[in-house]
Amino acid sequence: MWTIWLIAAGVLFVLEMFTLTFYLLWICLGAVAALLISLVLPDAILLQVLVGCIVALVLTVFTKPLSRRLRTSRGFQDAGTELIGRQGIVVEPIEPGHYGIVKIGGDTWSATAPVSLGKDERVRVMKMSSTRIEVEKWEEIL
Question: Which residues lie closer than 8 Å to 9 by C-beta, 6 or more apart?
Fold first, then answer.
């Protein structure tokens, strides 16, 4: 049974890396707790599930107020806000309603745009939500 918990924790961890929300991380840690229980008590499946659920629930309940307080604290700046207004280059074309890839500095981002943007066009970051950015065509201000 421990291999199932290990696989679940690994899959949840990888999914968490794509979402950056921490909710899947807490469930992942619940799966790790269930994994530890399964190593000690391999036949207690109900206990493993129960411990995993309790750990995920406790982490969700107790860390949400902490993260809210951190985000509203003075001087906090979300990592994504520094991208807004920066210039990037379209690596994979962007079509309205579909994602493309934009390179900003040395990093690449999934990006959307209200209009079609071709490869190598310069763009400006307008908004950021989780791991995706919204861009518009770069126009020089004279």
Answer: 28, 29, 31, 32, 35
Structure tokens at 86: 């920066």
**pTM, full prediction:** 0.52
| DSSP E strands, 3-131 | 87-92, 100-104, 107-112, 122-129
Per-residue pLDDT of 80-136, as tens digits, reads 677 888 899 999 999 998 999 999 988 889 999 999 999 999 999 998 876 789 999
Dihedrals φ, ψ of 83, to 5°?
-80, -25
Q: Output the DSSP codes for the chain.
A: -HHHHHHHHHHHHHHHHHH--SHHHHHHHHHHHHHHHHHH-TT-HHHHHHHHHHHHHHHHHHHHHHHHHHHHSTT---GGGGGTT-EEEEEE-B-TTS-EEEEETTEEEEEE-SS-B-TT-EEEEEEEETTEEEEEE-----
Element (DSSP H or E) covering residue 138: none
